[in-house]
Each structure stands twice: as C-alpha cells, then as structure tokens.
Amino acid sequence: MSEFPTRRMRRLRRGGVRDLVEETTVTSDDLVAPLFVDATADEPREIHSMPDVYRYPVDGTVVRAGELRDLGVPAVILFGVPEEKNEQGTRAWADDGVVQRATRRVKDSVDDLLVITDLCMCEYTDHGHCGVLDDEGNVDNDATLAYLRNIAVSQAEAGADIVAPSGMMDGAVGAIRESLDSHGYDGVGILSYSVKYASGFYGPFRDAADSAPSFGHRRGYQMNPANARIASEEARLDVQEGADALMVKPALPYLDVLRRVREQNDLPVFAYNVSGEYAMIRAADEKGWLDAEETALESLTCIKRAGADAVITYFADDLARRL
Ligand code: PBG
C-alpha cells in the first residue's frame, strides 16, 4: 500500500472547489474600452488589422459609448483622428477638435460613463511624433510641455473626467497638473502612461490612428524594452508630480514590470493590453490556431493577477458580454 502522494493538489480543482478558491476574478468593472473618434468618417470604419474595432464619427462614438455602458463597461478612453494634421498638431487642443466634441456629446448623453482622454500629439502632428520638433528634428521636451498644458485644459473644458498623457515627456504630469489646477480643473484626474515602452505591439494602433512617425522612431522618448529598473523611477517621478494613477504599457510582454510597479506604489495601476496583443489573438483565431474567447479572458486574468487594478483593452466589449 503506497502512501504517496498524500498531498493531492487536484482536490482544489474539483467541481465547485475550483471557483471557490479562485484568487483572481476579472469583472466588467475592471475594463476600459478604447474608442477611435474620426473627424473624417461619416460612418463607422473597421480597422483592417483589428477585427471588430472601428473608427467612429462623433455621432457613432456616442452610440458606441452608450452600448458599452449598457454592457457594464465603466470607462472609455478616447483617441482622435483629426480632420487635418500639421506641424504643431493644432487640432489637439481645438475647442471643436474631434475628441473635444466627442467628449461633450458622450458626457451629455451617456450617464455614469467615465471619459478618459488620451493626451498626446502624435495623432495630430503631420510628422507623427509625440511633441513639437526642434531644428534638428528631435522632439523638444520642454517646448512640448506648453502644448500638453493647453490640450489638457481643452479636454477638461470639454468634460473629460481623467486625462491620460501618453507621450513620455519628462515633467508632463507636473505641467498638466499645474495647468489644470490653475484653470479650475482640480477635480480632473491624471492617469499617466508612466511606463510606456517603445514597442512593436503598437503597430495596429498606428494604422487605426494613422499616427506612425513619418521619419525616425519613438525610442528617444519611449522606454527601452530591456529595462525594468528604470520603470520604478518613471513611476516614482509621476507620483511625485501628482499623478492619480499609473499605467504600464504594453501589458502581456511586461507583466514583470507591472508587478514591480504594483509592489512599489500604492496608487491604482492600470495596464494597457495594446492593439498588437489584440491583433495577435484575433489573427490566430481567424486561422483556427487558438480560441480568441478563451485566450482573451486568460490574458485579462493574468494581467490582473500580475497586479493591474484596471485594464484598457480592445476585448472590453466581448468580455463585458460574457462576464
Ligand atoms: C499615443 C498612443 C499610442 C498608443 C496609445 N497612445 C501609440 C504610440 O505610442 O505609438 C498605443 C495603443 C495600442 O497599441 O493599442 N502616444
């Protein structure tokens, strides 16, 4: 008679026991849905590298936001595709800019939905970089801060609940906080893309927002994927400058960084499950190589397990329907 094994871990995976002892649960309350608002579109246009993700005109954005709220998604993050791009990205802070118009309309028409606005210049500049350029064609950090201040105020004026600077400019959070406060928007929060890597996983997004840099790359401001320790310093500076919440982006290839930021900070931590992470799963599913429903939920569970309080994900609609 063998006494081995006496510890049988499988007992914890039987029937109802498995659910009872589950450590991490994804709910629709954790999800933020990205929405692309397109000033040049008069009907929803599907993004070819992101099945079921669309660029919406302002009207369509309002309808879509309402559907997401009805599904139980508590927040959207808006990205703009402007009618015109130029060197200074002037449409980024226009009172009638596409994100400003959409924000006003969504806040007017959809109850209890948080509107987060992505705060960056790359969708608005003709060169596609996340700031204004100096004479040598490099992004001028400090000159860009003045633009970010204006964009933040115009988004707050339109009714944004939270602004989300995503350009990785040094000092952005402090500059934006100061600008919002001095214009009477001390209630508007800052969700900082504190730890944003220079990643190939943004490919489909750049299709969607038509925001690929026309020359060069973003490695001069976005982080080096090889580094994790520097992430701590990026997060620390943002906390010090007044961020309300931190973000790690992308999510799946950077779960170690997410865990690190979670453990070192007590502010909420968001993760951005980016366009490439979505596209990979959907493409493999189309080929019949894996199941998108299963792997999407598994991905989100792992991102939460690693430490995310909330996740920005293109799977928000699909997950909210199922959870
Ligand atoms: C803008 C921005 C990007 C993403 C979010 N905000 C693109 C970039 O930095 O090139 C990517 C999101 C995604 O891939 O889903 N700075």
Q: Total domains, how many? A: 1
Shape: globular
Classified in CATH, the superfamily is Aldolase class I
Helix content: 25-40%
Give the helix tally: 11
Identify the CATH architecture. Answer: Alpha-Beta Barrel
Secondary-structure element series: HEEEHEHEHEHEHHEHEHHEH
How big a fraction of the residues is strand? 15-25%
CATH class: Alpha Beta
Distance between the first and last residues' Cα = 46 Å
Descriptive report:
There is one protein chain. The protein has 323 residues and is α/β, with parallel strands linked by helices. It has one domain: TIM Barrel (Alpha-Beta Barrel), CATH 3.20.20. Helices cover 39% and strands 18% of the residues. The chain has eleven helices and ten strands. The protein has helices at 15-20, 58-71, 98-109, 141-158, 172-182, 203-209, 229-241, 255-264, 275-286, 292-306, 316-322; strands spanning 31-38, 45-47, 50-56, 75-81, 114-119, 162-165, 189-196, 245-249, 269-273, 310-313. It has an eight-stranded parallel barrel, surrounded by nine helices. Helix 4 (141-158) links the parallel strand 5 and strand 6. The protein is globular. 48% of the residues are buried. The structure holds ligand PBG. Ligand PBG binds next to helix 6.
List keywords for this structure.
single chain, 323 residues, alpha/beta, TIM Barrel, 8-stranded parallel β-barrel, 18% strand, globular, binds ligand PBG, porphobilinogen synthase activity, EC 4.2.1.24
